[in-house]
Amino acid sequence: MFIVSSVIAALVASNLLSLAQATGLNTAAKAKGLLYFGSATDNPELTDAAYLAQLNNTDDFGQITPGNAQKWDTIEPTQNTFSYTKGDVVASLAAANDQILRCHTLVWYSQLPSWVSSGTWTNATLIAAMTNHIKNEVSHYKGQCYAWDVVNEALNEDGTYRTNVFYTTIGEAYIPIAFAAAAAADPSAKLYYNDYNIEYAGAKSTAAQNIVKLVKSYGAKIDGVGMQSHFIVGSTPSASTQATNKAAFTALGVEVAITELDIRMTLPATEALLTQQATDYANTVLGCVQTTGCVGVTIWDWTDKYSWVPSVFSGQGAALPWDEDFVKKPAYSSILSALGGSISATSSSSATTLATSTHTSAVTPTSSRAPSDTGVAQWGQW
Fold first, then answer.
1. Alpha-carbon gap, residue 315 to 309, rounded angstroms
2. Nearest CA to 343 among 44, 63, 21?
3. Residues 6 or more apart from 289 whose CB is under 8 A from it?
4. Distances (CA, A) of 29 to 276, 290, 341
5. Active site residue: 76, 137, 199, 260, which one?
6. Among 106, 159, 353, 369, which has the highest number of CB atoms less than 10 A from its own CB?
7. What are the backbone dihedrals phi and psi of residue 127, each rounded to the nearest 5 degrees, phi first?
8. 369 vs 72, 215, 233, 234, 236, CA distance in Å?
9. Which of 76, 153, 199, 255 is the catalytic position?
10. Are 361 and 293 in contact, with CB atoms under 8 Å apart?
11. Residue 5 contacts by C-beta under 8 Å, 6 or more apart in sequence?
């Protein structure tokens, strides 16, 4: 018995040593009970060898989201002409690395080709065009996507529906119709509604919950809600605020995920801002860890070098856990701490140790202060 116990103890010690030597954000997230920690990416930066090497590091990233490659203007630039080249590059990369693929996005008011946004439509013809687009794209990626962001950003800040070609022509029914079409094309994919400023209680969060109820009332499938989480340093909701809000969604029978996380600041970055950013990242990740049914965290690319923020918010940036030179910022360590890991004091900056898992995601994979309305980005894409 002593010999067996000694062998087991040695194996456990060996395993812990291995984790301490090579644990990153994704490894820590999975040890904590999440499905993944991941990153968005886009095709142009995949030519950067150093960038790609880190994106391929599955200790840090167990999931990838195509930032632009699966949007309507890229996939179907002219009616019934489909181009999957860019999307396939990202999907193939994820498959080669055994990383989960979150597919993004099918129906969104922005980045539409002019034939959609400026077309002359009736209710019937636009439904036909929309469902045809969904059928073709989801069928092409069938079996490859853990989840699809089916409808993206359908709401105004006050919780009313955003005016766009789909809502104007079809009405709110375009949302459940889109979900039904996606489910028919790939029954195994998780289907999400995705939006920003729904990470804390308020009119928009309530309206997003009502979208879940709407889709279900039509008998269509909806599996999750994506909370983009584009925040501002110092104006990020507390962990408890985020967890309580997430629980309101999971109570409706859907999972949730943080889908586009970044936390921007007014430049230049200072030590104080970076310290606050680290706290804000920790609170956001903890909000997921503390929520049964929050399945994972995706940052909206991993390095400031390729962040969308400076091109949209003048004078702002430094929003991601790695800087433009691919050096880890304090936010990296704070995320690890929130996930139960910590930087080892006796090893390199990439080595961490893990705490015992306490989170339950409740699903199985198939392959501070409340913010003001101006505390987050006004849209989540790049």
1. 9
2. 21
3. 32, 33, 34, 338, 339, 358, 359
4. 22, 12, 9
5. 260
6. 106
7. -60, -45
8. 37, 32, 11, 8, 7
9. 153
10. yes
11. none
Do the Cβ atoms of 76 and 113 come closer than 8 Å?
Answer: yes
Give the C-alpha separation, 273 to 325, whole Å. 18
Q: Which two tokens stand for residue 64?
A: 């990838």
Contacts of 167 (CB under 8 A, 6+ apart): 154, 161, 174
Q: Encode pLDDT of 214-233 as tens digits.
A: 999 999 999 999 999 999 99
Measured CA to CA, the distance from residue 352 to residue 340 in angstroms comes to: 10
Q: Is 324 a catalytic residue?
A: no
Q: What is the pTM of this model?
A: 0.88
Number of H helices, E strands in the chain: 14, 12
Backbone angles phi, psi at 104, to 5 degrees: -155, 125
Residue 219, both tokens: 């008998």
Q: Is 214 helix (H, G, I), strand (E, B) or coil?
A: helix
Q: Residue 342's pLDDT is what?
A: 63
Token digits of residue 277? 């950013």
Buried/exposed 103-131: b ≥16 CB within 10 Å, e otherwise: bbbbbbbeebbeebeeeebeeeebbebbb
C-alpha distances (whole Å) from 186 to each of 76, 191, 288 are 19, 10, 27
- Is 157 a catalytic site residue? no
pLDDT (0 to 100) of residue 377: 37
| Residues of the chain where predicted confidence (pLDDT) is lower than 50 | 1-22, 345-353, 355-357, 362-382
Contacts of 233 (CB under 8 A, 6+ apart): 263, 264, 265, 273, 276, 277, 280
